[in-house]
């Protein structure tokens, strides 16, 4: 399954929507995504499962690239 992770790079600052970034991760569960990213210093806001038409739409985007973790 592919997940879209919304995050802030600085864990010490209050999240600001304009600073939110995203990445795509392939994993079996949200728990696994968190486990894969635990060593990175990220403030994870939301993890969204992508499937069906939503996944197709994201894959068509020029920004779609699976993160190698």
Structure, described:
The chain is of the alpha+beta class and 69 residues long. The chain has one domain (2-60): Ubiquitin-like (UB roll), CATH 3.10.20. The chain contains 2 helices and 3 strands; from the N terminus they run ββαβα. It has helices at 30-37, 52-60, and strands at residues 2-8, 21-26, 43-50. A 3-stranded antiparallel β-sheet has the order 2-1-3. It is globular and about 35 Å long. 4% of the residues are buried.
Give a short summary of the structure.
This protein has 2 helices and 3 strands. The chain is α+β, with helices and mostly antiparallel strands and 69 residues long. The chain has one domain: RNAP, epsilon subunit-like (Ubiquitin-like (UB roll), Roll), CATH 3.10.20.
Overview features:
single chain; 69 residues; alpha+beta; 3-stranded antiparallel beta sheet; globular
- Fraction of residues in helix: 10-25%
Overall pLDDT: 93
Determine the strand fraction and express it as a percent band.
Answer: 25-35%
Task: Name the strands of the widest sheet in spatial order.
Answer: 2-1-3
CATH architecture name: Roll
Secondary-structure class: alpha+beta
Measured distance between first and last alpha carbons: 15 Å
Examine the coordinates and then state which fold CATH places here, giving the name of the CATH topology: Ubiquitin-like (UB roll)
Compute the number of structural domains. Answer: 1
Rg from Cα: 12 Å
Low-confidence stretches: none
Say which CATH homologous superfamily is assigned.
RNAP, epsilon subunit-like
Number of strands: 3
What's the number of helices? 2
* Morphology: globular
Q: Helix and strand succession?
A: EEHEH
Largest sheet: 3 strands, antiparallel
């Amino acid at each position: 399954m592919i997940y879209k992770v919304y995050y802030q790079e600085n864990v010490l600052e209050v999240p600001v929507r304009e600073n939110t970034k995203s990445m795509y991760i392939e994993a079996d569960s949200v728990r696994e995504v968190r486990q894969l990213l635990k060593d990175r210093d990220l403030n994870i806001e939301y993890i969204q499962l992508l499937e069906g038409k939503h996944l197709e739409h994201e894959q068509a985007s020029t920004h779609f690239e699976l993160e190698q973790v």
